[in-house]
Amino acid sequence: MRIDPAIAALRADRGLQRRAQQATIAACDAWRAVPAVADALADLDSFGAGAALEACPALEAIFTTPGAADTLVAPLLAAMAGALTRERFGHPPLRHGFDGSASTLLLARSGRAQLVLHAREPGSYEFATATFSDALRHQAVLAGDAVARIARPAAAGFQFERLSLKPGVRVALALGSETLLVDHVRRRLVALRLNRVAAEPKATCELALADGRLLRRSSGDIAASRREMMLAVLGRMKCAEAAPTMAAMAREAGEPSLRWQALRECLALDTAAGFRALVAVARAADDPLCEPAGALRAQLVETHPQLLALEEDACPA
Fold first, then answer.
1. Would you give the distance in Å from CA 314 to the centre of its chain?
2. Which of 45, 58, 202, 287 has a CA between 20 and 30 Å from the CA of residue 274?
3. What does the alpha-carbon distance between residue 226 and residue 252 come to, in Å, rounded to a whole number?
4. How far apart are CA 210 and CA 212, in angstroms?
5. DSSP code of 252?
6. CA-to-CA distance for 21 and 2, rounded, in angstroms?
7. CB-CB contact of 142 with 73 (8 Å)
8. Extended strands (E) in the chain
9. CA distance 192 to 59
C-alpha cells in the first residue's frame, strides 16, 4: 500500500499534527473575535436560554437584514480557507457531517439553540413522509438555487406552500406544524440555520405525506433519547441485572417514549418482571401509556396464556 509522504510525515511526527490542528483552532478563534460575530454569538446565548429573537438584535439582523448572514459566514470561510491552505491536513474543530446529499457544519451552540451551516447537493428529492418536531427554525439562504415546499398538516392531509430558494431568501418555521421539503436543487443550496428546541419538547412525529397517517413517534428530548439508546444497548448486551431498573423506569412518571422503551427491553430481558410492569401500567387509567400497554398485554396473553399467572403479582395501579 502506498502512503503519501506528507501523511507518512504526520504519522512520524505528532508535532505536525498538533500544528495543523492549532491552525484551524486559531482560525475559529479569530472568527469568533470579529465584532459582528461576537455580538451574534452573545445573542445566541440569550436566545438559547429562551429569549425572543426580537430581543437579540445582532442575531435577529442576520435573519432579517439582506446580506447580514454573509457577514457572519464570510469571515469564517476566509479564516478557515487560509488555515487549510497552510495546513492542508488540518481538521476543522467544528462538528460536521455529510450523508451523500446533505452536509452540516455546527457553527455554535448555546442552551437550546444551534447555529448551523447547511448545504444540499444538486438533484431531485422525493419525500414519502414529513417530520414535525417541537422547535423553531430561522433560515437564510446564502447560495444556490432550489425549489421547495412548506408542508403543513391539514384536515384533508397537507397544505403546501411552494417556495423558490435563492440567495437572500429568508424563511421562519414553527417546526411543530410546518416543515420544509426541498424538492429540486439546481445549484448547491447553502443556508444558515438558527434552530431552537422547546424547553420541554413534545414528541417528534413522522407523518405519511399521502394521507397524513402517523408513522412514527420519538422523543423530542435529547436527554431522553440518550437514555433510550442506553436501554437499547443494555438490551442488546442481554444485561439481565438491568431488568429491575427498567421495570421501575416503566412505572415512573416521565417521558412516555422512554418508559415504553424500558418496558420493551425489560420484557425481553426478564419476562416476569417486564409483564408485571406492563400490567401495572395498563391498570393505571390516567397513564398516557395505559391504552397501548393494555393492547400489548392482551396480545401477549393471547399468544402466551401462562402469563396470566403473573398478573396476581403485578403491582396495583
1. 37
2. 202
3. 18
4. 6
5. S
6. 25
7. yes
8. 96-98, 102-110, 113-120, 123-124, 129-132, 135-154, 157-165, 170-174, 179-197, 204-208, 214-218
9. 12
Q: How far apart (Å, rounded) are the C-alpha atoms in residues 198 and 194?
A: 13
Nearest residue to 42 via CA among 23, 55, 25 = 55
Backbone φ, ψ for residue 27 (5° rounding): -65, -40
Tell the residue number behind the cell numbers 398516557, with chain if given. Answer: 288
Which residues on neighbouring strands pair with residue 97, listed in sequence order? 104
| CA gap 298, 282 in Å, rounded | 10
Three-state DSSP state, 85: helix
Read out DSSP for 208-220? ETTT--EEEEE-S
User: Residue 107 is which amino acid?
Assistant: L
Residue 248, CA distances (Å) to 17, 41, 260, 276, 279 in order? 48, 42, 12, 11, 13
pTM for the whole structure: 0.77
Q: Are 193 and 119 in contact (CB under 8 A)?
A: no
Contacts 24+ apart (CB under 8 A), 11-17: 17/89
- H-assigned helices in 87-221: none
Torsion sign (Cα): 68, 69, 72, 77? negative
What is the largest distance, in Å, between two alpha-carbon atoms of the chain? 73
- Locate all alpha helices (DSSP H) within 65-166, ordered by sequence: 68-86
Contacts 24+ apart (CB under 8 A), 54-63: 59/194, 62/140, 62/192, 62/194, 63/138, 63/139, 63/140, 63/170, 63/172, 63/192, 63/194
Q: What single-letter amino acid sits at 154?
A: A
Mean pLDDT, 10 residues at a time, the chain of 317 residues = 74 77 93 95 96 96 92 93 88 90 96 96 96 95 97 90 96 96 97 94 90 83 82 91 92 84 92 92 90 92 86 55
